[in-house]
Amino acid sequence: ERGMRGFLGYFRDCLRLPIYRNFFIAYVLVILATACASPFSVLFARETLGLGLGEMGPIFAWGAVASAVAFVPVGWLCDRRPPLLVTAWTLVALAAGSFLALALVRGREAFFLYTILFALPSVGWALGSLAATMKLFPESRFGEFSSGLNVFGCGALIVGNGAMGFFMDAVHSDYQMVFLWSAVLYLLAAIPMALVYRAWKRAGGPDRYVAPLP
Q1: Cα separation of 153 and 142, whole Å?
Q2: Which of 68, 125, 144, 196 has the smallest CB count inside 10 Å?
Q3: CA–CA separation, 114 vs 101, rounded Å?
Q4: Dist. CA 182–CA 177, nearest whole Å
């Protein structure tokens, strides 16, 4: 019982203040939009577009190359602009890209273009959110908040994979709807992320911010 109280208190500390709670919410929503949707993107390429594994492999390989290249400008941007702002805008870009993919990706060439172009905002979130935790979380509790964030991410994977399966059943395995799933979740994630940025600015921003302790 004492151990359970300590365990719950650990996460209560992480979620007590709105500035951190909203970041956790945004992080969980992005996990649902990305990791839980990724396997169905492969099914979309295979079942809806009719691509074979030999065709998908080079497309995903070029996507990985595009991601590697994207780390350079995104890293440069995160050094010159607040990472919290970078992550908020990349969520808007990810939502817009997913909506465009829903409407426009109908063949191999369009899927290849989507994979390449989507790399930039994807890296923007991946690198920007990591840099944001260093600007946002209290230094004395950084390990606690970071581990709590990852535990919530694992929980999102468990729940989200099941929810994604139910969603696919509801749309009768129309795998193109995976883009709608992701677009809506990215858009929802942008709201708490914008609240985090606003709270961070009010608490001092880039020059005078002192991370509040729960």
Answers
A1: 16
A2: 68
A3: 7
A4: 9
Task: Pull the structure tokens for residue 6.
Answer: 């300590």
pLDDT digits (tens, 9 = 90+) for 75-89: 999 999 999 999 999
pLDDT in tens, 2-51: 555 555 666 787 788 999 999 999 999 999 999 999 999 999 999 999 99
Chain-centre distance for alpha carbon 132: 13
Query: Distance (Å, rounded) from C-alpha 19 to C-alpha 10?
Result: 17
Q: Which two tokens stand for residue 44?
A: 């979309």
Contact between 26 and 154 under an 8 Å Cβ cutoff? The reply is no
3-state helix, strand, coil in the chain (%, to 5): 85, 0, 15
Say if pTM beats, i.e. exceeds, 0.90. Answer: yes
Q: Which of 178, 151, 156, 183 is nearest to 167 (CA)?
A: 178
